[in-house]
Amino acid sequence: MSRHIISILMENESGALSRVAGLFSARGYNIESLTVAPTEDSSLSRMTIVTTGSEEIIEQIKKQLNKLIDVVKLIDLTEAGHIERELALVKLRASTAVDRDELKRLADIFRGHIVDVTPESYVVELTGTGEKIDGFLEALGDRSVIEVVRSGSSGIGRGDRSLDL
Amino acid sequence: MELSGGEILIQFLKDEGVEYVFGYPGGSVLHIYDALYGQDDLKHILVRHEQAATHAADGYARATGKPGVVLVTSGPGATNAVTGVATAFMDSIPMVVITGQVPTPVIGSDAFQEVDSIGITRPCVKHNFLVKDINKLAETLKKAFYIASTGRPGPVVVDIPKDVTDPMVKIPYSYPKKVEMRSYNPVMKGHSIQLKRAADLILSAKRPMIYSGGGVVLSNASAELREFTRLLGYPITQTLMGLGAYPASDKQNVGMLGMHGTYEANMAMHECDVLIAIGARFDDRVTGKLAEFCPTARIVHIDIDPASISKNVKVDVPIVGDVKLVLEDLIKLLQESSVKPDESAKNKWWAQIDEWRGKQCLEYDRQSDVIKPQFVIETLSKLTSNGDTYVTSDVGQHQMWAAQYFQFDEPRRWINSGGLGTMGFGLPSAMGVQLAYPDATVACVTGEGSIQMCIQEMSTCKQYGLPIKIINLNNRYLGMVRQWQEFSYEERYSMSYMEALPDFQKLTEAYGHVGMKIEKRSDVEGALKEALALKDRLVFLDFITDRKENVYPMIEAGKAHHEMRMAADRELA
What we know:
The complex is a heterodimer of chains A (about 160) and B (about 575).
Chain A: E1 2-11, H1 16-26, E2 33-38, E3 44-53, H2 55-67, E4 71-76, E5 82-93, H3 97-109, E6 113-117, E7 121-128, H4 130-140, E8 145-150, E9 154-157
Antiparallel strand pairs in A: 1-3, 1-4, 2-3, 5-7, 5-8, 5-9, 6-7
Chain B: E1 2-4, H1 5-15, E2 20-23, H2 30-36, E3 43-46, H3 50-64, E4 68-72, H4 76-90, E5 95-101, H5 117-121, E6 127-130, H6 137-149, E7 155-161, E8 170-172, H7 192-203, E9 208-212, H8 214-218, H9 222-232, E10 236-238, E11 253-256, H10 263-271, E12 274-278, H11 284-287, E13 298-303, E14 317-320, H12 323-336, H13 343-357, H14 373-383, E15 389-393, H15 397-405, E16 414-415, H16 426-436, E17 441-447, H17 458-464, E18 469-474, H18 479-488, H19 504-510, E19 514-518, H20 521-533, E20 539-544, H21 567-572
Parallel strand pairs in B: 2-3, 2-4, 4-5, 5-7, 6-7, 9-10, 9-12, 10-11, 12-13, 13-14, 15-16, 15-17, 17-18, 18-20, 19-20
Antiparallel strand pairs in B: 1-8
Helix pairs in contact in B: 1-2, 1-6, 3-4, 3-16, 7-12, 9-12, 10-13, 14-15, 14-20
């Protein structure tokens, strides 16, 4: 079992997202996260799917995705150098001076920003790999976390490796 | 030319060369039916249930190779059609299904006869479209036909809201001759390096086996398959979907493989050292236990769908491409090669296969007074051996007997629901075939369970004068279910017995056709001859067969190719 980040360019048609989501549920593939948004070309959407499976399963996932009529192009980012980023917004209980200091320090260590402050709480904005965000949440422990919102991963190939037409 | 959406649809179908539309009217498609009225270039066949419309279009497509066309209304019209869409999808049959939809302003409001047809059909279509703009109608229809009939074929649903076909809204129409899609470009030619590797492997075989499937039929590659197989002199087996692509009567043919395949085909699969899979998808009914599938073989797999390759079974030499083109290239490579098949190894292999053949795994009791279902099929095959006979079937024991005992020597003559296994497919698909080939003999082999799932279509047959011969193998059981219950559930025949069967003879007569009931073996041939001679009448032959006959040989679920259960095993037990 290994983790793969699959990036897809697809026709920006209604229903395209449900074709992908339906494929994963119908065939019982794992899906860790899925993000989608239009690209610089408004006729195309870019989707990033994080999935896990054996090499055979990953191969099938890629073939089945490619088979969808709306899919124009696909790459497996994890096959070579790539950058993975996820955005997390974390609301934290921060009502005592000790907590506020500690949480500020922790956010700094992870290069997060505090983007909302009330007498009772902080909201920390953090970007990084999924692993880094996991690390931040682990370091916080359960006590101070009120709410966590994660965007799911987006990714791009390093250097001249790109997904375009 | 300014046309309304409804008129555009009809004109487009004519321009596309469509002969028949199978359908059923309703609220959302009334504009379209109005546009259909008063013209007769495009013939509409009014079925009695939308499931039958899809099966009839499917049968037409399987027999002709041209996409079948269906027109149904929104809501229940669309949901009734889904079984037929899924059937076509599983067997890769080109089909365009036009479903009406409620008007765009009320989509999503739970309007009368509204259903999310796009959502419901998404997992069982090659692609589907919702046309919200009349300006995109012709272009979308063109794409639908293009997608349905190229690459690995399949059904495409086009959902058209009622306001898009409004007779008051007219736009200029011209037939879109070409279609270009950046996201859809099926690979047709095999990769040259892979072709070379395949040729080398094929020629190095000591115990070769050719395993061909429905893809050969779909790609019209029967002639190439024959040339390829004869050139090599290797044994060939076919899947249920591939029957007829290679002549059943040819000596290199070892018959069907898989769950109810022949002993020799399955044993040869188990022992072969090189397997050449052509347009076949390693279905579980074919492979048996995957862990023991072709344990000593290296595998070449030719398929147009990359996703079929190494899906169930890992292969050594994959070739993505159209079977016809790939076989053409392979034949050339084999002819040019200085290496020739090892004759002595081949002779030894054939001697082994002949020994397996000696088991005569399809033998059955020919002396029995009670009608044996196998005997009915064998006799039908003998009486219709002119090659111009089409056999459709439903699903169950009768389907397997038809596959085993009818000699299919030509492709597109054997029409059955292999992948989905849809009971109710036989009669409506026979209608599609008979319409495509009015002068051909079309026999629908069925059982008393399956036929009742679409029996209302006898009415359609009356309306259009379709002289189908319905061969009902009536054992008063859901035979295949009963067989599994005998083998695996200690003869607990739960719900597999049908009480209160209709009098099929009278029922057929009530529909305006000829009904016959045959109860003795000695009457079988006479009845079939009589029915076949009634060229312009539908004849329903109700054969009262042996109640507990089983389909043999059989690989039970979870077993491997070399673990077949033979008819003789039952007699011993």
